[in-house]
User: What shape does this take?
Amino acid sequence: MKIMFICTGNTCRSPMAKALMERAARDLKVQDKIICDSAGLAAAPGRGANETAILAAQELGMDLTGHCAKQATPQMLLEMDAVAVMTPDQYAFLKEHLPQMEGKIYLPEKGIPDPFGGTLEDYRRCLDRLNRWVRKLLLELLEKEKGQGNV
Assistant: This one.
């Protein structure tokens, strides 16, 4: 199953969510079934992860130092089984521009605010919210795939 996490610049939320999803998949021993990536709707390709995001992720044992931002493209998104966005605006944008993705776009309840420019504590809160959502999302996607007879 291919999952893409989308945020604005692909330097904070989506790389953190990707790392959390990879960890959750390992925890559930389904890492061989999950391929995840991240991208931004307004990314500066090649930019690294935000330094505060790196610090917050390190506190949880995750390494974002090798992250390299990339711009989401329609082709990239259409190849995914699931696209996870951070805000209602991103959800609406993708539904409008890629209507064929209907049913494959996921949004956390109330969205995940962008911590960019915030404090380390802001990033910790963001990671905590992402972690809870990503674990729920993984279980939901595995259940959906199981219902389709793919697991």
